[in-house]
């Protein structure tokens, strides 16, 4: 029983992480048609912002908000500097550009720092554990699940209630019509990137807290997983991205439990094989609607 | 039958131009007698094989493939496992399945088996992946690469896992690499100009119109995918026999970036693109590598800049996408560009030629 609760918590917290990342990918994709390979670097930017803060001697309490702010600013800057010159380029050009951008950010960070993982202090509260009856609970896991839930609620409110949110949803439907209504395209796109950066920043803080260290290449594994989650959910669907993220978290934890230790190393192979399979059987994703399929 | 062969004459001329370029480079490198130049050139020629192999699928179909290095990895590991001396293997992988630790094939037999393995892998993955298009295809191919990487890394009894594989007999030299590169170019160019290649390119330009004229997009993509796997696998075999020792990271993301940058810079729409791109990227890469270690240039001591070559690749990809999304050569082969330049150099004469060619009727096709 204790074991099951523990694993459920594992799956939920891991799923939250993937959901946040996939949601950010989907937000940008739904507005711009861009599959942002450099999304993982937002996690890295969060980590390095936190590292910089600790080196500058800024109090620990500010690490988390500043880390998230770093990713948000980073995402908006990415759009300004790298993606805006490519407005209206075909999706594959954008994809390749983001691929290049991802390498550039990694290598610039490598030039500025060191290739080995650098330890980062995270606020002590993230490292505490407490017990409910017989169950030993990590504070971090509870926070991951809780904060993700809050972030999702906030995002839904933003998309439903605020003008910018409505504009973003409209942009996902028909960008041209939105522009004819007098909404500035740049503003909507900036908002989309800010949202994706904000979500990646939250995920980034948790990832840094789990790992306790940062390195320039830490984002890659996570962006791959976020792709998987987004694909499972049907690329571009926001609800799909969240469901895909949690599905992936549950799948990974189940595989971890189910697989004998001799093949445990192959877990990621199973996970990615599943994505391949989903893409073949349902190119629109498990949760996506059958709409248009690219040929 | 002869008319069919004659159809490929312009293609063969194009191959000759590229082959001449490669032979001249190899010749110049031999003249310098420098070991390190020879190493760079051999690596360049193997990269050309892989980049040209990638062009066969990605360039003609217009479908992104981020997972192509998996073919190279499989070719290299298969060749290594089959040809490494049994003595070495019994120490490294004593529990190999199928008694592979005792197998010791010659270079050619090993290469043939490795290519068979890669081709079978290409057929299997092609049946699953090749019909997909757009973004899902790009992600699925990347997933394929990760799967291959994870399997190679974790199948310790077969590959030695994360440890470096050592002891592959060194058989590849610059001559082999030159021959391999020219053969790959020949295959790619003939494929591009063949009926199948034309159908595939038609599907890239307009899938709906192509399908409407009876092109089976899935099957032409499949053929290109398998051919691509075969050639890239051959590059892997040569690389294994050139390096002698390598690990799973040798055939993973960094090489993916490198080859992709070559293809994108040169232009994926034609076979000359990856060749020219590989040449330019290799030169740039080597310059950046020499700057990376912080050399002293004209009495000025430069700082160590770790990661500079990769930074150069990333920036190169972005700049290419911005200013020449079709690559430097665009949609014309090198020989076609040369012909245009020659015509521009001699405007008066070429007008006459053009007029007489048009009169003659059939030879005007050569200019198209």
Coarse shape of chain B: globular
Tally of domains of chain B: 2
Number of distinct helices of chain A:
11
Q: What is the percent of helical residues of chain A?
A: over 70%
Written as H for each helix and E for each strand, in order along the chain, the element string of chain A is HHHHEEEHHHHEHHH
Structural class by helix and strand composition of chain A = mainly alpha
Major sheet of chain B:
2 strands, antiparallel
Poorly predicted runs of chain A: none
The value of Rg of chain B in angstroms is 22 Å
Task: Strand order, main sheet of chain B: write it out.
Answer: 1-2
Reading the helices and strands of chain B in chain order gives HHHHHHHHHHHHHHEEHHH
Kindly, what is the distance between the CA atoms of the first and last residues of chain A, rounded to a whole number of angstroms?
48 Å
**Beta strands of chain B, count:** 2
- The counted number of beta strands of chain A is 4
**Whole-number count of domains of chain A:** 1
Approximately how much beta-strand content do the residues of chain A carry? under 5%
| Beta-strand content estimate of chain B | under 5%
Summarize model confidence as the mean pLDDT of chain A. Answer: 87
Instruction: Give a short account of the largest sheet of chain A.
Output: 2 strands, antiparallel
- pLDDT averaged residue by residue of chain B: 88
Q: How far from one another are the termini of chain B?
A: 22 Å
Give structural notes.
- The complex is a heterodimer of chains A (295) and B (368).
- Chain A has 295 residues and is mostly helical.
- Chain A has one domain.
- Chain A is built from eleven helices and four strands.
- In chain A, the strands form two sheets. Chain A has a two-stranded antiparallel ribbon. A two-stranded antiparallel sheet of chain A has the order 2-3.
- The longest helix of chain A has 31 residues.
- Chain A starts with a helix and ends in a 14-residue tail after the last helix.
- In chain A, 49% of the residues are buried.
- Chain B has 368 residues and is an all-alpha fold.
- Chain B folds into two domains: 250 residues, no CATH class; 36 residues.
- Helices cover 73% and strands 1% of the residues of chain B.
- Chain B is built from 17 helices and two strands.
- Chain B has a two-stranded antiparallel ribbon with strand order 1-2.
- Chain B is globular.
- Classes of the chains: A mainly alpha (295), B mainly alpha (368).
- At the A-B interface, α4, α9 and α11 of A face α7, α11, α13 and α15 of B.
């Amino acid at each position: 029983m204790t074991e099951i609760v523990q694993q459920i918590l594992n799956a939920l917290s891991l799923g939250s992480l993937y959901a946040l990342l996939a949601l950010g990918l989907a937000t940008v994709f739904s507005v711009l048609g861009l599959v942002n390979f450099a999304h993982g670097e937002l996690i890295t930017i969060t980590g390095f912002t936190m590292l910089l803060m600790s080196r500058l001697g800024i109090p620990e309490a500010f690490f988390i908000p500043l880390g998230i702010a770093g990713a948000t600013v980073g995402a908006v800057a990415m759009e300004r500097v790298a993606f805006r010159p490519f407005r209206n380029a075909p999706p594959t050009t954008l994809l390749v550009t983001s691929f290049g951008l991802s390498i550039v950010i990694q290598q610039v960070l490598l030039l500025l720092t060191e290739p080995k993982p650098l330890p980062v202090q995270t606020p002590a509260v993230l490292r505490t554990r407490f017990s409910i009856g017989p169950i030993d609970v990590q504070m971090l896991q509870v926070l991951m699940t809780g904060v993700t839930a809050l972030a999702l609620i906030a995002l839904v409110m933003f998309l439903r209630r605020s003008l910018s949110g409505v504009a973003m949803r409209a942009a996902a439907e028909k960008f041209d019509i939105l522009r004819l209504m007098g909404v500035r395209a740049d503003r909507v796109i900036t908002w989309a990137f800010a949202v994706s950066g904000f979500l990646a920043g939250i995920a980034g803080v948790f990832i840094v807290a789990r790992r306790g260290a940062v390195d320039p290449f830490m984002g890659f594994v996570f962006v791959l997983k976020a792709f998987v989650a987004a694909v499972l959910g049907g690329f571009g669907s926001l609800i799909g991205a969240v469901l895909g993220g949690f599905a992936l978290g549950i799948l990974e934890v189940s595989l971890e439990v189910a697989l004998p230790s001799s093949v445990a190393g192959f877990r990621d192979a199973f996970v990615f094989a599943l994505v391949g399979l989903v893409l073949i059987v349902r190119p629109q994703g498990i949760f996506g609607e059958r709409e248009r399929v690219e040929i | 039958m002869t008319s069919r062969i004659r159809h490929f004459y312009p293609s063969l001329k194009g191959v000759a131009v590229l082959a001449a370029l490669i032979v001249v480079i190899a010749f110049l490198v031999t003249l310098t007698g420098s070991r390190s130049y020879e190493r760079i050139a051999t690596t360049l020629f193997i990269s050309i094989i892989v980049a040209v192999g990638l062009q066969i699928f990605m360039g003609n179909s217009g479908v992104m493939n981020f997972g192509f290095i998996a073919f190279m990895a499989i070719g290299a590991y298969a060749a290594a496992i089959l040809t490494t001396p049994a003595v070495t293997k019994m120490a490294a992988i004593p529990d190999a399945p199928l008694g592979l630790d005792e197998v010791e094939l010659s270079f050619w037999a090993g290469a043939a088996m490795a290519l068979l393995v890669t081709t079978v892998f290409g057929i299997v993955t092609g049946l699953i992946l090749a019909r997909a298009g757009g973004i899902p295809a790009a992600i699925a191919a990347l997933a394929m690469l990760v799967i291959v990487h994870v399997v190679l890394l974790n199948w310790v009894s077969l590959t030695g896992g994360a440890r470096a594989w050592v002891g592959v007999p060194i058989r590849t030299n610059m001559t082999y690499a030159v021959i391999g590169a020219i053969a790959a170019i020949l295959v790619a160019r003939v494929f591009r100009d063949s009926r199948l290649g034309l159908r595939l390119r038609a599907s890239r330009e307009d899938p709906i119109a192509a399908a409407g004229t009876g092109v089976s997009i899935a099957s032409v993509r499949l053929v290109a995918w398998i051919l691509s796997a075969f050639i890239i696998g051959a590059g892997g075999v040569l690389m294994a026999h050139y390096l002698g020792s390598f690990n799973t990271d040798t055939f993973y993301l960094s090489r993916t970036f490198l080859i992709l940058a070559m293809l994108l810079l040169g232009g994926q729409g034609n076979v000359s693109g990856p060749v020219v791109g590989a040449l330019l990227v290799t030169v740039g890469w080597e310059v950046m590598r020499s700057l990376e270690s912080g050399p002293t240039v004209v009495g000025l001591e430069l700082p160590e800049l770790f990661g500079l070559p990769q930074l150069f690749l990333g920036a190169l990809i972005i700049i290419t996408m911005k200013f020449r999304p079709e690559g430097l050569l665009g949609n014309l082969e090198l020989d076609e560009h040369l012909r245009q330049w020659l015509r521009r150099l001699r405007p008066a004469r070429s007008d006459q030629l053009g007029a007489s060619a048009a009169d003659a009727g059939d030879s005007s096709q050569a200019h198209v």
